[in-house]
Structures are given as C-alpha cells and as structure tokens.
Automatic annotation (TrEMBL):
Its cofactor is a divalent metal cation. Residues 25-342 form the Histone deacetylase domain. This is Histone deacetylase 8. Its EC number is 3.5.1.98. Its main location: nucleus. InterPro entries: HDAC_I/II (IPR003084), HDACs (IPR000286), His_deacetylse_dom (IPR023801), His_deacetylse_dom_sf (IPR037138), Ureohydrolase_dom_sf (IPR023696). The lineage of its organism: Eukaryota, Fungi, Dikarya, Basidiomycota, Agaricomycotina. It comes from the Eukaryota.
Length: 408
C-alpha cells in the first residue's frame, strides 16, 4: 500500500468493552482513560480524517464458545465463563486454572473474556475480510494466557486467537486461494511466552511456515516470565526454530538501543515477507512505568516507540493489527496509545501537544502534554551485545530465507 492509497482503519471500542476492561485487577480504569483521551483528541471522529484515510469505529462482537474454543480447553472455558465463579477465590479449581495471585477472579470476568477476545477477533476479521488495512484494539494483547491457565494478568489468549484467525486460507479477488503469512511482533517489556510456545515448531509442516513470532523483551533470572525461549537460542541446535524468535534486552534500553536493533527486526520481516502483522504494543517499557526497567521514550525521535510503529504502519507494506498489552502508568499508557492511534490515522499528533480538556485531565499532571520522555537511567545494553544481536539475526534471517525459498 503506497502513501497515496486510501488507508482503511478500524478502531474497536464500545461502552461494554471499556466497562469490562476497566475491571481488570492489574489495570483498573485504564481502558476508560485510554479511550477517553483518544476521543478527546478528536481521533475517533471520521470527519477529522485526511482524504487518504477512512476511519470506521466498530463495536466488538462477543466471542462465542466456538471462537474461544479454537484455542482454550473446554474445562477452562466452562470455569472462567461461569459468573458463579467470579468471587470463588477459595475454589480449589482456581489454582488449577491459574486464577490466583496475579490473576484473581473478579466480578465481570466472563464478560471481560468474551469482550476482549471479541474485540481482537473483530479487528482481525476486518483485516482478513479486507475491510481494513489497519485495525486497532487497545484492550487486547493478552500474551501470557495459555490453553487452560490464566497467567500474568491475562485471562484470555486473544493474540493466539487472532493468529489462528488470520492464518486461515481466504479467497483473493482473482479467485485464487492462498495461505497468508502472519508475523507477530511483541514490544512489551515481558516475553510473549504463551504466544511463542503456542506456535513453536508450527513451521515444520509440508505446507511450510505460515506464522513467525518475534518478541523483544527484558529477560534476566527471576524476571517474569521464565522461559528458555526468551533467550538468544543457538541457531545451530537441532531443534532450533527460526520462526519462533526472541530479542532479549538488558536494563535501561533507550531509543538508541532500539535504533540499533531495528534493522535486525526489519531484516527478519523482509526474509519472512508477511502479508499481515500483529504488533503487541505493550508500554511497560516506557520511562515512567512502575517496572522501571527500560528507559524508552514515546516520541523523542529515532528508535522511540512511536518511530518504530510509524515504520511498521507506513513503510512495511502489510496489513497491521495493533494491540495493547502491559502498561502500569495509566496516564502514560493513554498517552502512548493515543499517539500510536494518530500514527495509524496518518495524522500524528505533535510530540508536545497539550492534553485536551476532558474529565480525566487532572491525571496528566504535571506536564499536561502528550510526550513520554526518557529518563536518566543508564543503558546496560553495550555495543558488544548489540553487535551480537545484529550478527545473530543476520544468520537467522538467512535461515528463514532459505526455508521460504523451498516453499510454494
């Protein structure tokens, strides 16, 4: 899609989705804050769009049992979708399904699961049916939920469900049937363990690779989640899967760090040549987040989160599904996803734009501006390690190209 083509953007939101997502114990009222700022910034008014952009605001279609069962087990769904279990914290089944500690049950959980999964699937379906070029669901991006277990504040595996939807064959305008290649790129501070595990070795079929996952994250001993897949695994190992990838970064990662690694990300993308990209835009790596691990800025220039997403939306030439994820400084999460929405709409807001007057305005003190600047934390990602990443992914991209060349 060239810059002159009309871009069709769909944005997923409804009062019911906002209400349900705002009940999430780890992020209470974050959804309300996000969508309120996006709306107050004038981004949900189709009349404000440029001539080369068409916006459609879509209500999420509730995910039904069949759609959720495309990945989750029936036992898990029967338990988590039963409103009677919403306050059953002492139920022995809670532990079996991971519904404890960081994932407690809560009133409204069944609606939350259906609405969040439904929101992401509504966005994915719009892309799959060629009714949109970019689809946005900031309430999605739950990348830790497994088949029968909640984990890491995630109760439903909407990322996995979206990948399963987008990989399905569909008929092209010329009546041919093809199997689209789908890339999943995760920018969250935490490793996308459940997504990576779900598609590990999925490329080992006669029909060839169809899904590639790449997670950029922080990974040190004791940091959630623990997984051997979160490391730079030996590409010469017999069981190495070049379509399930990780790019771990140390503390203090800055815009400069991301500017250094981004050519490797694009090298992988070019080798795989996806037709659709899912980008999980977790913002817990931004400066100011309570995790205080990375020192990433929103829009300070080359290598910033906004710069990366701008390249994805405006230079990669594929359909894009934009999802939310982590982010525990709620005003900064709202700033970030509002700014990324403006990029998708081809009308990027100014870095120092004033927060518009609306009900949540006082929460944006003391700056009352859109930017999320980097702090002063030292970057522990040295030149030697970043050079290692470059060399590593050059070899991995070569392996991907070699494998893709053997596929029809």
């Amino acid at each position: 899609m060239s810059s002159e083509d009309v871009r069709r953007v769909c944005y997923i939101v409804s009062n019911e989705l906002v209400k349900a997502s705002s009940l999430l114990p780890s992020n209470k009222n974050r959804s309300l804050l996000v969508h309120a700022l996006v709306k107050a910034s004038g981004l949900l008014n189709p009349a404000n769009c440029r001539d080369n952009t068409h916006l459609q605001v879509l209500r999420p279609v509730l995910a039904d049992d069949k759609e959720l069962g495309a990945y989750h087990t029936q036992d898990y769904l029967q338990f988590v979708l039963n409103p009677a279990h919403a306050s059953a914290a002492d139920d022995t089944n809670c532990a079996e399904f991971g519904l404890e500690e960081d994932c407690p049950t809560f009133v409204g959980l069944s609606d939350y699961v259906r609405l969040v999964a439904g929101g992401t699937l509504t966005a994915a379906t719009a892309l799959r049916e060629d009714r949109a070029d970019v689809a946005i669901c900031w309430d999605g991006g739950r990348h830790h939920a497994r088949k029968s277990e909640a984990s890491g504040f995630c109760y439903v595996a909407d990322c996995i469900l979206a990948l399963l939807t987008l990989k399905r064959m569909h008929r092209c305008p010329d009546s041919s049937v093809r199997r689209p290649r789908v890339m999943y790129l995760d920018l969250d501070l935490h490793f996308s363990d459940a997504v990576s595990e779900a598609f590990l070795d999925s490329s080992a079929t006669a029909l060839g690779p169809q899904i590639l996952t790449l997670s950029i994250h922080h990974s040190t001993p004791g940091f959630f989640p623990h997984s051997y897949l979160a490391t730079l695994r030996d590409p010469s190992a017999d069981r190495f899967d070049p379509f399930t990838l990780s790019m771990p970064l140390d503390r203090g990662a800055t815009d400069a760090t991301f500017a250094r690694i981004w050519p490797s990300v694009e090298r992988v993308k070019e080798a795989f040549r996806p037709e659709v990209l899912i980008v999980q835009c977790g913002v817990d790596g931004l400066a100011g987040d309570s995790h205080a691990i990375w020192n990433w800025s929103l829009n300070d220039g080359e290598g910033s989160l906004g710069w990366c997403v701008d390249r994805i939306c405006n230079q990669w030439g594929c359909k894009v599904l934009m999802l939310g994820g982590g982010g525990y400084n709620h005003p900064n999460a709202a700033r970030a996803w509002t700014y990324l929405t403006s990029i998708a709409l081809r009308r990027p807001l100014a870095r120092d734009a004033d927060i518009p007057d609306h009900a949540a305005f006082p929460l944006y003190a003391p700056s009352f501006t859109l930017d999320v600047p980097a702090g002063n934390a030292p970057d522990q990602n040295g030149d030697a390690y970043l050079d290692e990443i470059t060399t590593y992914f050059h070899e991995v991209a070569r392996m991907i190209e070699e494998r893709m060349s053997t596929c029809t």
